[in-house]
Design a protein that fits this description.
Layout (H helix, E strand, L loop, with lengths): L1 E7 L15 H6 L9 E10 H16 L2 E3 L8 E6 L4 H20 L4 E6 H6 L1 H6 L5 E3 L7 H9 L4 E3 L22 E5 L1 E2 L10 H5 L3 E2 L2 H13 L4 E5 L7 E3 L6 E3 H9 L6 E5 L8 H9 L6 E3 L7 H6 L6 H14 L4 E8 L6 H14 L3 E6 L7 H5 L6 H26 L3 E9 L6 E5 L5 E5 L8 E9 L3 E7 L1 H7 L1
Parallel strand pairs: 2-3, 2-4, 4-5, 5-6, 6-7, 8-11, 11-14, 15-16, 16-17, 20-22
Antiparallel strand pairs: 1-2, 9-10, 12-13, 18-19, 18-21, 19-20, 21-22
Helix pairs in contact: 9-10, 13-15
The structure holds 5'-deoxyadenosine (5AD) and iron/sulfur cluster.
Length: 487
């Protein structure tokens, strides 16, 4: 769920005729306005899925303020970059992009440049000093203020709002689905994080944890389904600590309840979620996953390290045994569930033996895939204040390579076991490699490629796997009956 690479997200300028779903939201929201009256904004997003989801909220706020999206930054009146601070590399990427926007701004004076998200929150007014071209700085809880700050910036005063809120969930804002395939959408259910992992900048950039009104989550998912979407991913920094109290009935809704409510919207609406914290995921969640066919059998359960002492220094509040017990519970309650992970190599004070325990954890948990990083010290975090970043870069890199090599082997072996199996696949898009093929995911979140034939995007098909690589499966279409017989 994480991306350091420059990934562009945009609302394409399509017509309703060209694109029956996705971008239609946007067109509808501005349908009563002539295109010539609209100013244009261009937005790029970096980092976690949450940031991509936030950009869709920003697009909705801008639509209200008479802005249309463009994928061409050269014609934009407003350029926004939604940033990530999680590792130093992510921030460097953003600074490089700002240099490019700077050149553009020189060619087109009057263009406004705004920095949104975690880097805006972390650096605050410093960003305006360091990056002269930046006109606007808005933290993750300040997006409602964007139209006001744009107006001030148009008058030549740079605008900043990095106030972190205890309440803001943007519950009432219907996100514009930027660059959507019209099949799957992200729905934010909670914001912020109270966990205080010692390596992590998120509690400082996204503030305190708060859960979104259950009714608004279910309403958003229902509306997506009515518009033809077939998959929703419930998003939060720590979805398992979702908790919302109905102000009238005083009943509380936990994450397992919310999952169930979402699954009940329609049997052919798939439900996914991310991210789970090993200390918070409950058996109730696991039982609900087992109970509903449309809750996907996939859990992103970041371990970070396989060694209890390192986990303690990381302030993860679980140890190796606890994590292994969680994996056992998942295997027992949902035998066909895929598990993925985030892993940090070379955290402060990590010994060679402790690193070996991370490798043995990867082996034990049999992750279908992992996001793997070497430790990057972030200013202001608990680890930066308490521990020395004492593992030399070459050792961090070597350990990371060992982690990656092992994970790749395991992914390959897991995919080998899928050979000959039949999966239900939600068709997402054309395969990157060939226009004759389509692709989509199975419940376990694995991408499967199959011949296009007369299959439509957004439908379910059954695919018998014949070939595999470490990252994907490839197969042929079979009947639903064959699938049912194979279960
Ligand atoms: N250095 C390296 N990786 C980090 N992550 C978070 N903070 C850091 C850091 N300082 C990783 C964690 C987290 C994922 C989103 O990014 O593995 O789960
Ligand atoms: Fe990056 Fe974390 Fe902010 Fe997401 S929440 S954008 S991963 S720093």
């Amino acid at each position: 769920m994480y991306n350091d690479n420059p990934t562009l997200k945009f609302g394409k300028e399509k017509t309703i005729e060209e694109d029956k779903q996705g971008d239609v939201f946007f067109k509808e929201q501005v349908a009563n306005k002539e295109d010539k009256d609209l100013k244009k904004f261009y937005i790029e997003s970096y980092g976690c899925q949450m940031n991509f989801s936030d950009s869709e909220i920003v697009a909705s706020i801008l639509a209200e303020a008479n802005y249309a999206s463009t994928r061409n930054m050269e014609e934009a009146d407003l350029i926004l970059i939604n940033t990530c601070s999680i590792r130093e590399k992510a921030e460097q990427t953003v600074r490089k992009r700002l240099r490019i926007f700077d050149k553009l701004k020189k060619k087109r004076p009057g263009t406004l440049v705004g920095v949104l998200g975690c880097m805006a929150e972390r650096l605050k007014a410093k960003l305006l000093e360091q990056e002269k071209l930046v006109d606007l700085v808005l933290g993750p809880d300040a997006y409602r203020d964007l139209p006001k700050l744009i107006a001030t910036a148009e008058d030549g005063t740079k605008g900043i709002n990095v106030h972190l809120s205890r309440e803001e969930t943007y519950a009432d804002i219907n996100p514009v689905r930027l660059g959507s395939n019209g099949v799957s959408a992200f729905v934010t259910i909670m914001r912020g994080c109270d966990n205080m992992c010692s390596f992590c900048v998120v509690p400082f950039t996204r503030g305190r944890e708060r859960s979104r009104d259950t009714f608004s989550v279910v309403a958003e998912c229902t509306e997506l389904y009515q518009r033809g979407f077939k998959e929703v991913t419930l998003l939060g920094q720590n979805v398992d600590s979702y908790k919302w109290e109905n102000p009238e009935s005083k009943e509380t809704v936990d994450f397992a309840d919310l999952l169930e409510l979402t699954a009940q919207i329609a049997p052919d609406l798939r439900v996914r979620f991310s991210t789970s914290h090993p200390k918070d995921i409950t058996d109730k969640v696991l039982h609900n996953m087992a109970k509903y066919e449309n809750i996907c059998k996939y859990i992103h359960l970041p371990v970070q390290s396989g060694n209890s002492e390192v986990l303690k220094r990381m302030n993860r509040t679980y140890d190796r045994e606890w994590y292994m017990d969680k994996v056992r519970a998942i295997r027992r309650i949902i035998p066909d569930c895929a598990i993925s992970s985030d892993i940090i190599a070379g955290f402060c004070g990590e010994t060679e033996e402790q690193h070996q325990e991370t490798l043995s954890m990867i082996e034990f948990a049999q992750y279908s895939m992992s996001y793997m990083f070497f430790y990057s010290e972030r200013p202001g975090t608990l680890a930066a204040r308490k521990y020395e970043d004492d593992i030399p870069l070459e050792i961090k890199k070597r350990r990371l390579q060992e982690v990656i090599r092992l994970q790749n082997q395991i992914s390959f072996e897991i995919n080998r076991k899928d050979q000959g199996r039949i999966f239900k696949v939600l068709v997402e898009k054309e395969s990157k490699k060939s226009a004759d093929d389509l692709c989509g995911r199975n419940s376990q979140n694995k991408m499967i490629i199959f011949p296009r034939e007369d299959v439509q995007v957004g439908t379910y098909v059954y695919v018998k796997v014949q070939e595999f690589t470490q990252a994907t499966l490839k197969g042929v279409l079979v009947s639903e009956e064959e699938y049912k017989n194979s279960l």
